[in-house]
TrEMBL record:
Membrane topology: Multi-pass membrane protein
UniProt protein name: MFS transporter
Record PANTHER family: INTEGRAL MEMBRANE EFFLUX PROTEIN-RELATED (PTHR23513), STAPHYLOFERRIN A TRANSPORTER (PTHR23513:SF11)
SUPFAM superfamilies referenced in this protein's UniProt entry, alphabetically: MFS general substrate transporter
Organism of derivation: Kitasatospora terrestris
Primary localization class, coarse: membrane
Upper taxonomic lineage: Bacteria, Bacillati, Actinomycetota, Actinomycetes, Kitasatosporales
Length: 436
């Protein structure tokens, strides 16, 4: 008799401890819990994959080939994924993509554990995984407004950001433990399980297509063009994408390429760089938690200011100060990164029509993260000419004004937190309230 009562009390306590958006929106709660393990699995794979390549006799160049094999299909197919995510129930697109990624990671894990895996097999499997991700990503961005009321999208995105940022801090430690305990194959098996868990939760989402989606499909290229027209017709959208592209192309190479170089040359090696990256992750996590409570009336104004602060990452890394100071300043930029991305995602989900949201999100991904390899390729040669410190200062000197330029657009300064109701709708609402 006591056990059921204890379980009931514990269940009530856990429920009360949950953020209100998880308590009040059960469909979002299912998505959130399913995706939390999957995001951690992705972070683990990011760390494990190079070691998997090396474990089968691959070289540093082979690590690059395997990484590119996952990235190229993603970039080529993400606009296609956006169209299909707007055509079909988005949770089903995500479910099929997760099933494919489960199969890929399970196959890679089995081959590695059996000692029958080579670089060629990893290249082929990661290409399939990248193609599946190209369909999953825009569908995921477009799904949230179907699960959460408009006024709670910011809270939902902030909680998703908490998981993303937390996985940046926890993921490398989990990956290191798994590699030590069960090897790269066992670590990839963990990621496979995470996709299976995500698929189970997605299967329990009974979400239909967007209500404003036309019943009949139009030709594929016309639908793709309609998605681009949604971007082109809104200055705050295309300007935001341009600013974010500048961040990915100009600033992030400082983190992925030049930061480790400077740490190796001047900071004492990998431990110092690990401190800086961990501080950034903690700052990003704090930013997500702050965004759960922050309610800006003009979200894109705050987002543009945050992007300007985030663009200071490069000059912070190259400032020449003590490592502890650099870590503290990187934590501040981590807060800014989270603020920008949560408010940006929420603005898109709030103001873009549901029928085309996944297509707009696909262009967002293509024009930001898709251009990052260009910056990664150019960062090294540039600093060979001007020096690492000068290059880092120049990166922020270019990116910060670009972010601040967003504030020059009236549509950025005046975009409200929620769409304004048409006059007719307001009149009807007032009349209904008056009549009780």
């Amino acid at each position: 008799m006591g056990c059921p009562a204890c379980c009931f009390v514990i269940g009530v306590a856990v429920r009360l401890a949950l953020p209100s958006v998880l308590r009040d929106e059960p469909l979002f709660a299912r998505l959130f819990f399913g995706q939390s393990l999957s995001v951690l699995g992705d972070r683990v794979t990011f760390v494990v994959l190079p070691f998997a390549v090396l474990s089968v006799g691959g070289s540093a160049a082979d690590v690059g080939w395997v990484t590119a094999a996952g990235l190229v299909p993603l970039l080529l197919l993400v606009p296609v994924g956006g169209v299909w995510a707007d055509r079909l129930p988005r949770h089903r697109v995500m479910l099929v993509a997760d099933a494919a990624r489960f199969a890929v990671q399970a196959a890679a894990a089995a081959l590695l554990l059996a000692g029958r895996c080579g670089v060629g097999e990893l290249v082929a499997l990661m290409a399939v995984s990248g193609a599946a991700t190209a369909f999953f990503t825009p569908a995921s961005s477009g799904l949230l407004p179907l699960l959460v009321p408009t006024e709670r999208l910011r809270e939902a995105n902030a909680l998703r950001g908490v998981v993303m940022s937390g996985s940046v801090v926890v993921g490398p430690a989990v990956a290191g433990g798994l590699i030590a305990a069960v090897g790269p194959g066992g670590a990839l098996a963990f990621d496979a399980v995470s996709f299976a868990v995500s698929a189970v939760f997605l299967a329990r989402l009974g979400v239909a297509r967007p209500a404003d989606r036309p019943a009949e499909r139009e030709p594929f290229l016309r639908e793709l063009r309609e998605g681009w027209d949604e971007v082109r017709s809104r200055p705050w959208v295309w300007a935001g994408m341009a600013g974010m592209s500048m961040y990915h192309v100009v600033v992030l190479p400082a983190v992925f390429v030049l930061g480790p170089v400077l740490a190796d040359r001047e900071w004492g090696g990998a431990n110092s760089w690990a401190l800086v990256t961990a501080a950034f992750g903690v700052g990003a996590l704090a930013g997500d938690l702050w965004l759960y409570r922050l309610r800006p009336d003009r979200p894109m104004v705050v987002a543009a200011a945050a992007l300007a602060v985030a663009s200071c990452q490069a000059v912070v890394i190259g400032c020449g100060g003590p490592v502890v100071l650099i870590a503290v300043l990187e934590a501040v930029t981590g807060v800014a990164v989270s603020v920008f991305f949560v408010l940006w995602e929420t603005a898109l989900q709030t103001h873009i029509p549901e029928r085309s949201l996944s297509r707009v999100s696909s262009f967002d991904h293509l024009l930001s993260a898709g251009l990052m390899p260009l910056g990664l390729a150019l960062a090294g040669p540039l600093t060979e000419v001007v020096g690492v410190r000068t290059g880092l200062v120049a990166m922020s000197a270019v990116a910060v004004p670009c972010a601040l330029a967003l504030l020059g657009l009236r549509s950025v300064r005046t975009l409200p937190a929620e769409p304004e109701k048409p006059a007719e709708t307001e009149a009807v609402a007032e009349e209904a309230a008056a009549t009780g």
